[in-house]
Every structure is written in C-alpha cells, then in structure tokens.
Design a protein that fits this description.
single chain; about 475 residues; about 40% helix; elongated
Length: about 475
C-alpha cells in the first residue's frame, strides 16, 4: 500500500494537464489547486480502503477523465440557472418571475455604465432615484404618487411604521396571513411599531366590526389580500369601498396589501385577482404589491396612493435602508414601460405570457418536446397527458391552469427518483415533478429554445444513473 502512495501524480503535473482544457483554464488558480488537493486526498483514501490496488489506476492518463469531471462539478457556481419544468410560473424557490428581454438589457446597461441614478439631467443637481418610475406607476395605476422599496414585506413595514407607529391598526382576523418562510402579517406589524387590533371572525367580518374597534389611537385600517389561500362557504368580508367609507368618516387612512399586485386580468377575467388600478379607484389611500409576482418584474415592493401619505413614507428614515438598487430600478422601469401597450404586454412579459398560454398551444408544444425526447432516447417510454399548471407565488391559489405534461417512464431497472436526482445534478439542472411514477415536464414554464437543452441534460442524467441492483 505504501508503494501506491508514491505513484500519486504531483500537483504540478496535474495542473499542467488541466491547463490544456479551455473550460477549466479560466478558473482562479487558488481554487484549482484546492480542488486538485481534494481530488488527490480522495485517491489517498481509496488507497487506504483498498479501492485502488494497482499503479495503473494512478496513472495521470487514467485519472484525468474523473479529475476533469470532479473539477467541473465542484467549480460550478452555487447560484446558477435552472430549467423549470414544474409548470409553476411564479416559482419562489426558482427565482419567481423571469425578466423580459427589455428589462435584461436595461440591467446590463445599468451595470456596465454610469447612470443618472440620483442625478437630475435638467438641473445638473442631485435628483431622486424614484423619479425614474414614479410617473410610470402613477400613469399605470391611477395613483397620485408612488415609491418603491426592496420587497413587499418591506413595503408593509414602512407603510405601517409611517402611518401607525405606536398606534393601533385594525385588521380582519381572516386576513392575518402567513406570507411564506414563516413570516406572518402580525409579525411584520409588530416590527413596524404598530399595534394589531383584530376584528371579526376567521370567516366573517362586518363593517360594524371596524367601526366598533376605532378609537382615538387608531392609526390605520388594513386590508390584506388573501392571495395565497381562500376561505369559502359561510363567509363575509368588508370590501375596499366599504372600508374606505369608514376611513373617510373617521379621517383614518386605509392601507391595502395586495400581495401579488396584478395590473392585468387573465382569461377574460376568469382569474379574478383584483388589479392595482381597481384598488386605487376604490379610494384606498395606500396600496402595496410585489414587483416580481404577477407584475413580472424584479423583486420590489411597490407603494402607490395618495400623495400626502406617500410623501410621509418617503421621508421615513427606514426608506434608505429599504431602497432599491440601480439594477432593480432599471429592470422595473423597463418592465413598466411594456405595460404602456396593453395589446402587446402579455406577449412581451414572460410571466404574463406563461400564465396566458392556452391549453391548445401547450398541447402542441408538449407534442414537439415529447417527440424530441422519444427520438433522442428510444430506451425511454415517453408520452403526453393532460395536467395542471399553477400560477404560484401565492397568486390565484384556487385556480389550476390546463396544460399537457410530457411524461417519462425510466428504463427497466431504474427508478424515477434516481432520474429526478440525476437531473438535479446536470448543467443546468432540470426541475420537474413526479406523478404516477413518471417524471413529468410541463412546457408552460419552458421556452421553445430550451427544448434542445432539456434533451441534452436528460442524456447527461441518463449517463449518470446507476442501474438498480
């Protein structure tokens, strides 16, 4: 065994051998040395365990394919592209909305060059970063003023902290939602400095419940749109118009957290999330919503409403801690500009395009993808079947979208879970779902130009799958 250790290749010889591979040449030298050290350490462990028993196994020529595969796998960025075959359009775990090409171009331009981020080109003096999108937001929503922070949870916190710090905020019990990651509206309210006052019951809240809870210390009336769940059956809620009337009578601002923040109706209104425009038109004083959900833009918390309240929020010291950066601003402005043409926006914003895709279109695309996979890998059993997609991101929770799934049955002796695992380790990884012991891919969340790449990573996964014993 001790003789085998002497036949391990030297660090320099390994590095020299790797230098001829263009895919590895750009790796930082310290990283490459560290990875080679790890690989050599694994060889030493294999010698000790008896897994390596001959000098031939330690020849650099024999080791090189495994070494290159190891370095490539270990040097890949931790944060990287994924193929989304799940059919969940706004998939929080996979980065939510994909940006439109116009937005991506704007981000690249903002990153590569200096910009007028906080510079007024008319006066040559310091300007406001929010001026780049405020006019657009007001035009699109009908609001008097607007502000953008880094996400909607931040928007809720800064609005409540401005309007009702150390004061009471009245909200229906049926709207005390958890917004994901165990973050709950009552917790956000507490951190804002506002004091929660719950009214009504879980399933029924009436206007008089708000009226009776109002005191001289009431700072705001809050509505939270239940975008990630529904209460059905014997229910009653106070609509925005009713709450606005109560607020006006008592001179108390009404704030609505719309969550997903749609600016469009889908399928002729069949997907019936309230739009931001409708909420503003109902007279709600302040409205907040996400930029990276149904809007289809970057992560942002957008606040629109009456000027007197928005101006107060702008001057909250927390605004600086929650402000958006130039990349978010560039992507958001480019996305909002697409909404100026309501006839083309659903085709240009990927999130809207995916949500609006018809069952007939998806059936045709599934046929194309299944034919490609079946032709490339005859050992697989490939079929299509009706299925359901989801909007995701806490939007339209009770609505399934009809689709056609591409279903892959693994070869005999291989388990579908092994295929799923192998696909998570391809470049890029492919994420799908398992139904009826088949790996299912939903074309709704894939572009046509990703079909060929999907076929390639499927082959990579099949090559890596061990046969079951």
């Amino acid at each position: 065994m001790s003789n085998l250790f002497r036949h391990l290749p030297s660090m320099d010889s390994v590095l020299d051998a790797l230098s001829g591979h263009s895919s590895l040449a750009e790796l930082p030298r310290p990283m490459l040395r560290e990875l080679v050290t790890s690989f050599l350490d694994s060889l030493r462990q294999d010698i000790r365990s008896g897994a390596i028993q001959s000098e031939d196994e330690l020849q650099l020529k024999a080791l090189l394919p495994g070494l290159i595969a190891f370095v490539r796998a270990q040097s890949r960025p931790h944060f990287r592209r994924v193929l989304n075959g799940t059919g969940v359009v706004i998939h929080t775990n996979l980065g939510r909305s994909i940006l439109a090409p116009e937005a991506m171009s704007a981000v690249a331009d903002a990153c590569a060059n200096y910009s007028n981020l906080e510079f007024d080109l008319k006066t040559g003096e310091r300007g406001s970063r929010y001026s780049h999108v405020e006019q657009l937001l007001c035009k699109l929503t009908g609001a008097e003023a607007a502000l953008v922070v880094n996400n909607n949870a931040a928007a809720v916190m800064i609005v409540l902290g401005t309007l009702a710090q150390n004061r009471e905020v009245i909200v229906s019990r049926g709207q005390l939602v958890e917004i994901g990651g165990s973050f709950r509206i009552p917790d956000v309210m507490e951190k804002s400095g506002a004091r929660l006052v719950e009214v009504g019951a879980t399933n029924r809240t009436h206007p008089q419940d708000y009226e009776q809870a109002i005191t001289e210390n009431t700072g705001a009336l809050l509505r939270v749109h239940c975008s990630n769940f529904r209460i059905i059956g014997f229910t009653k809620e106070v609509h925005a118009e009713e709450l606005v009337q109560i607020g006006r009578r008592h001179n108390i601002p009404v704030f609505e957290d719309l969550g997903s923040g749609s600016l469009s109706h889908f399928y002729g209104g069949e997907l019936d999330e309230p739009t931001v425009q409708e909420t503003v038109a109902a007279g709600v004083d302040v409205v907040s919503f996400s930029g990276d959900k149904v809007l289809g833009g970057p992560q942002a918390g957008i606040i629109v409403g009456r000027r007197e309240y928005i101006e107060r929020i702008k001057h909250n010291p927390l605004n600086r801690a929650m402000r958006i950066d130039k990349m978010t601003l560039a992507a958001l402005e480019a996305t909002l500009r697409l909404y100026l043409d309501e006839n083309s926006v659903k085709a240009k914003v990927p999130t809207l395009r995916m949500i609006s895709a018809t069952a007939e279109e998806l059936e045709q695309r599934a046929d194309v993808l299944s034919s490609l996979v079946a032709e490339r890998y005859p050992q697989l059993s490939v079929s299509t079947a009706p299925g359901q997609s989801r909007v995701g991101g806490g939007s339209f929770p009770e609505r399934n979208l009809p689709t056609t799934l591409v279903r892959i049955a693994t070869p005999q002796g291989q388990h579908v879970d092994a295929l799923r695992t192998a696909l998570l380790n391809t470049t890029p990884p492919l994420v799908g779902r398992i139904e009826d012991n088949k790996f299912c891919i939903d074309p709704r969340t894939l572009r046509d130009d990703e079909f060929e790449l999907l076929a390639e990573v499927l082959g990579e996964a099949l090559d890596a799958m061990p046969l079951s014993s």
